[in-house]
Amino acid sequence: MLIGDVARRSGVSARMLRHYDSLGLVRPTGRSDGGYREYSSEDIRRIFHIESLRSLGLSLREVGRALDDPDFRPAELVDDLIRQTRERIAAETRLLTRLHRIGAAEPTSWQDVLQAVALLQALGSKSAGRRQRAALSSVEEGPVPVEALVEAVLSETDPNVAGALRWALAQSGDDGLALLAEGLGSPVAEVRKRAVQSIAEISDGTATALLQEALTSPDIVVRRYAALALGARGGAEAVPTLIDMVVEGTNDVDAADALSALASRPASADRIASMLVDRLDHDTVESSARRRLTQALADIPGTTASRALADLSHDEDRAVALTAAYILGIREQAS
Hints:
Elements: H1 3-10, H2 14-23, E1 30-31, E2 37-38, H3 41-55, H4 60-68, H5 74-104, H6 110-123, H7 128-138, H8 146-155, H9 159-171, H10 177-184, H11 189-200, H12 205-214, H13 220-232, H14 239-248, H15 252-262, H16 266-280, H17 287-296, H18 303-312, H19 318-334
Antiparallel strand pairs: 1-2
Helix pairs in contact: 3-4, 7-9, 8-9, 9-11, 10-11, 11-13, 12-13, 13-14, 13-15, 14-15, 14-16, 14-17, 16-17, 16-18, 17-19, 18-19
C-alpha cells in the first residue's frame, strides 16, 4: 500500500508517516517500481500501535522504546503517565479556579483583571510576609473574590497571616459565611478550627446563628471557640461550654472573662453563679478545677456569688478556702 493510501486509511498524514520513517519508527518494507514507499500489513499494524501509544501521552521516543526494547516494562511507564496526567489535571483545575475567581470579581477592565491576578498570586505566595501584605491590602485595592479569601484563610498556617485574612474576610460582610459553614464540616480538624475563628470575627446575625450551631459540634475545639465568641456577643447559651472550659483549664481565663461579661445583668449573674456552684459540688471535680471555679466567681456580681464565696471560705480544700476568702476581702473593700 502506498503512502497516500495509508494516510487516508489510518488518519496519519503523509508528512507524519515520513517523519516516522526518518525516526526509524515505521520503515516501509518495500518500494514500488517507481521508488515510492510501500507499506505492508505489518507496517500498517505498527502505525496503529504507535498511534495508540501516543494517545496515552507517550513521546515518540518512548513509543519507539516500548515497541522495540525487549527489556521494556510498561508498568513503570504507565505509573509515570498517571502521575503526569494528575499533575496536568491539577494545574488545569487551578487555572479554572483562578478564572472563576477573576470572573466573580466582575472586572470591568484589563487593569482589574491584572490586579485580581496579582492579588491571587500574592495570596498563594510561599512568603508569609507577602501573603500578609496581600491580605491587608486586598480591601483597599478593589473587589476580591470572597472564595479566594475563604480558601486562603482555611489553609493558612501562619498565625499573623491568618489574622490578616480573617480581618479582610470580615470586611466583606457575610458573603463568605456559606463557604465558612462548609469549613465547619471539614474532615480536617485544623480547617474546622480556622472556619470557626473566621466566623467569630464576622458581626452579623447569620454569623451568630452559625456559632450557635457550632456549640453542638462534635469537635470540642470548635465548641470552645464558638462559646467564647458567643459570650462576647451576650449569648447565654454559651454558659455551659464556658464553665466546662474553666473546669478543664482550657482558655479558662478567657472563659471566666466571658462569664463575667454575661453576668452583667442580675438575673444572669445569679444563674451563672448557681451553675458554677453546682460544678463545685461535684465529687468528680479535681482540686485545681475547684480553685478555677472559685476564681471565676470573683467577677460574678450579686448575692448568690457572695454567699457561695462565703461558704467556700470554709472549704475543706485549703487552696479553695484561701482563694474564696481573698476574693471576699476584695469584694468587701470594693463595696
